[in-house]
Amino acid sequence: MHETGIAAGILEIAETEAKRRNAFSVAGICIRVGDFSNVVPEALEFAFDALKAGTLAAGARLEIERVPVAANCPQCNQSVRPKGAILLWCPRCGGPLQVTAGAELDVVSIDLEVSEVTCSASR
Amino acid sequence: MQRVSLETPVLKKNDEYAAANRSLFAQNGAVAVNIMSAPGAGKTTLLEKTLNRIPFRCAVIEGDIQTSIDADRIRAVGIPAHQINTTCCHLDAKMIGDAMRQFPITGVELLIIENVGNMVCPAAYDLGENLRVMVYSVPEGAEKPRKYPRMFYQSHCVVLNKIDLAPYTDVSVEELKANVLAVSPNAVVIPVSSRTGEGLDAWLEWLTAKVGEARAAAICA
Q: Using CA atoms, how far apart are residues B78 and B91, in angstroms rounded to an integer?
């Protein structure tokens, strides 16, 4: 539901960095989206495509790395990867688990088109 | 083409605003509680039954897409309230920072932030709060905690509201409670009916103790 705001945030981060580096366009953006982040990747792609027009990332491809939910049991120090429905109790000792991965929502990297002229002029 | 590694959280700006809010709450000696739920779970009714029964000076920031109905209801019970109209589905930390410029929290001991009714998006936005409380109403069904786990997981307390309606639904409060704990093992689950008053004492006791602890910790720090 809030994927529009998330997409706008991704574009702002990419454009700020592109301008800082005098790039003339952003060709691709790689993001990391955890399965516990409450972001629906399809909705995010839709919002990204709708918002990118008129920005430096107008032609950018959005690449999404998914991160499955992982949890840890502080009692027996066991890592658990909940499958299907999330159940946050340790299968070994029955104690409460802590989510250690899956809430990620990060811009990993961007691919910039940087003009040769700008590059040599700035050296 | 040049690949630039960024490793930047998409919500970094929100997190910076949240950190500023957190400092402002601490400077003022206020404990902030972010109250979240789906629309209609009974957040405002619970607040109406809460705010005059706890030993703290309270104020409320209300978030809704439109209208000031909720802020008006809070003012009607004698508590200062400020309404934010978001036009979108959640409150973010900047909205809270902006609100506090128009609605100073000087002298406030407990600042309640009632989020926009939505069981998904508000969970992703840190507002700088000390405590997160979720209100979930029995008629919403027993299975939702399993389907929308994150907000439950993040909440320190889950208030199960409208237990007076349980006999008219197929929902077992015990099954619902088990489903909350399945995805949020450390949460305190408190069944209440804001309408009849059943269970409210346990909720008031929990909130009073937690706000007291947070204030004591802030004074020590």
A: 24
Residue B115 neighbours by CB distance under 10 Å: 28
What pLDDT, in 10s, does the model give residues B71-92? 999 999 999 999 999 988 899 9
Q: Domain segments of chain B: what residues?
A: 13-213
Alpha-carbon gap, residue B48 to B70, rounded angstroms: 10
Say how far apart CA B61 and CA B76 lie, in whole Å. 14
Q: Taking CB atoms and an 8 Å cutoff, what residues of chain A touch B88?
A: 2, 5
**pLDDT (tens digit per residue) in B149-192:** 999 999 999 999 999 999 999 999 999 999 999 999 999 999 99
Does the distance separating the beta carbons of B2 and A105 come in below 8 Å? no
B90 touching A (Cβ < 8 Å): yes
Specify the residue for token string 């000792």: A93
CATH fold, domain B13-213, is Rossmann fold (3.40.50)
Q: How distant, in Å, are the alpha carbons of A33, A105, A122, B13, B33 from that of B93?
A: 21, 17, 38, 9, 13
Residue A117 pLDDT grade (very low, low, confident, very high; cuts 50, 70, 90): low
> Residue A82: its pLDDT value, please?
82
> If DSSP codes are grouped into helix, strand and coil, which group holds residue A30?
strand
Domains, chain A, in order of start with CATH, read: 3-68+102-114 (3.30.2320.50)
Interface of A with B (CB under 8 A): 1-2, 5-6, 9-10, 13, 17, 21, 23, 27, 31, 36-39, 85-89, 95-97, 99, 103, 105-114
What integer pLDDT is reported at residue A72 of this predicted model?
Answer: 95
The answer to whether A106 and A32 have CB atoms below 8 angstroms apart is yes
Kindly tell me the sign of the dihedral angle through the C-alpha atoms of B98, B102, B107, B108.
negative
Give the three-class secondary structure for A26: strand
Contact B27, B77 (CB under 8 A): no
Contact residues, chain B, for A89 at CB < 8 Å: 182, 185
Give the residue on A whose Cα is nearest the Cα of B90: A2
What ipTM is given for this predicted complex? 0.88
